[in-house]
Amino acid sequence: RTWWWRRPLQGPPRPAATTTRFWSFCWLVLGAWRGLLASACPNACTCSPERIWCSDSAASLVAFPVLGKRSEREKVVDIYIANQRKLESINEQDVGLYIGLKNLTVVDSGLKFVSRQAFLKNINLQYINFSRNKLSSLSRKSFRHLNLTDLILEGNPFKCSCDIMWIKIFQETKIPKTESRDFYCVNDYNQRVSLMEKPVPNCGKPSVKLSTHNLTVVEGRSVTLFCDATGSPPPVISWIFNNLISKHESDTNKNPASLTIKNVSSNDSGTQISCVAENSVGEDQDSVDLTVFFPPNITFLELPYPDHHWCIPFSVRGNPQPTLTWLHDSVKLNESDYIWTKIHVINQTEYHGCLQLDNPTHVNNGNYTLVAQNQYGKDEASIPAYFMEDPGGSSPFYEHISYMGPEDYGTTTNDFEDTTNNSNQVTSTGFPNDNEDSITVYVVVGTAALVCTGLVIMLIILKFGRHSKFGMKGSVLFHKIPLDG
C-alpha cells in the first residue's frame, strides 16, 4: 500500500478564530494581573486597583492592612474597614503608605487611638468616617493640614473636654445648619451630653492681636513687635516668618510674647511676620509686613542698546521710592517726548527701567549720570553713551577704551561705514555719486531714444516713398544714377 500524507493548506486565519484568540489572551493577562494583586492583598481583605475592602468580622485584623508593592499602594484612593474589633490604632506608618488616599472609612471596629502624625502624608484625604468605634479623644493636630469635606465621628464615647471642642467648631464650619449632626460626649457623671446644646465650659478658641500693623524701621536700627493672645486652655504662641536675614530673638513664655529684630537689613523689607496661638480647641494668627526705610543704591547702570527706542538700562533700590534725575555732561537733562525715564519692573523696593531716547543723534553723545535720592540719602552713577559720529569731527567716546564699538549695538561695522561714507564721499568732478549716476542714466536713455526715432523715420520713408507724387520708387534710393560726362 501507498500512504499519502497530506499537510493542510495554510491560509489566512478566520476572523472568528482571531477574535477568540485575542479575548482569550486578554482574559489570561487579566487573570494573571488579578492573581498578582490578590497575592499582595492581605488575607482578610478584598483588593482592586483603587480600593481595599476589609469587612469580614472573622478576619480579626490587628493592624492596618498593607499592600506589598509601593506602586500598588500609591494607586489606592479608597479604604473601607468594618467589623474589626481588634484594630485599635492608626499610626503614620499605616495610612501614610497610601499617599493617593481620598476616602477612609473605619466603622464598627475597636479604634481607640489616632496618632497626631497619622495623616501627615495624606494631603489628598477628603472624607473620614470613624463612626461607632471606641475613641474617647481625638487631637485636632491630626487633621488641621487636611482640606476635609466631611468628618463623621458618631457613636464614639468621647469624654467631655476641651480636646474635642474643635470637632463641634469643624462641624459648624463645614456642615450647613440645616444638615448639622448632633455631637455627644460623656461627662464626669457618665452622662451623655449634647455639645450643640451644652458646650464644654472654659473652652475657648485662641484670639491673637499684634501691637501694631504698621511695622516700620530705618535700616540699621532695631524694632520690637508684641503679640497678645487669649484662649482656654492657655494657647501656645509661636512666631512665623520666612528668610529673615537680620538678627532676631523672641520670647514666647510671656503674654504678650515679643519678637525683637536687631540691626535691621534693607533686604528684610516686605517680610511678612505672623504670630500664631494654638490650643486644643483651635488656633488664630495675626500678621504684619516689615517695612524698612533705607537710602537709594544704584545697583546696575549699563551702556545704551537699541530696542524699540535706545535704552540706557538701570536698577535702583531704595525705600521710599527714590526720585530719579539725569545729567548729560554734568547738565540737568530736561525730559521730553524724545528723552524720558521709564520704569519697567517694580519688585518691592527695587526699580528696573531705562532712560529711553527716540532717534538720538551725535548731539546726544556724552556722559550720562543717574542721580537717585530720597529722604534718607542719595546715590549716583555715570556711563558714557555714543549714538552717532559727529559730522564735524571724531567723537571722543568712539575711542573710549571701555566703550562698545558699533557692532556691539547689533549693527555691523560695514553698516556704519556705508552710512557715513556714502553721504560724505565726493567724486573728482565735484558731484556726489548719486548725481553722477543720474546723469549717466539720462545720457543712455537719450541716446536710445534718438536711435529709435531714426529707425521709425527710415521705415516711414521706405513704406510711403514708392507711390509718391514725384514718381520716385523706393528702390531708386538704392540704385546708382549714371552721370553724363
Task: Describe the overall structure.
This protein is of the alpha+beta class. The protein has six helices and 26 strands. The strands form six sheets. Strands 12, 14, 17, 18, 19, 20, 23 and 24 form an eight-stranded mixed sheet that branches. Strand 23 (about 340-345) and strand 24 (about 350-355) form a beta hairpin. The model is unreliable at about 1-10, about 30-40, about 400-435 and about 470-485 (pLDDT under 50).
> Helix fraction?
10-25%
Radius of gyration: 47 Å
| Category by helix and strand content | alpha+beta
Unreliable stretches covering 5 or more consecutive residues: 1-11, 29-39, 400-436, 469-485
Q: What profile does the largest beta sheet have?
A: 8 strands, mixed
Distance between the termini: 136 Å
Shape call: elongated
The percent range for strand residues is 25-35%
Number of strands: 26
Mean pLDDT: 80
- Please give the count of helices: 6
Give the topology, please.
Elements (H helix, E strand, L loop, with lengths): L14 H26 L5 E3 L2 E4 L15 H4 L4 E5 L6 E2 L1 H4 L7 E5 L5 E2 L12 E3 L20 E3 L12 H10 L9 E3 L5 E3 L9 E7 L4 E4 L4 E10 L3 E6 L5 E5 L5 E6 L9 E7 L4 E19 L3 E2 L3 E10 L3 E6 L2 E2 L6 E9 L2 E8 L8 E9 L2 E9 L27 H12 L8 H32 L21
Parallel strand pairs: 2-3, 3-5, 4-6, 5-7, 7-8, 12-18
Antiparallel strand pairs: 1-2, 9-10, 11-13, 13-16, 14-17, 15-16, 17-18, 18-20, 19-20, 20-24, 21-22, 21-25, 23-24, 25-26
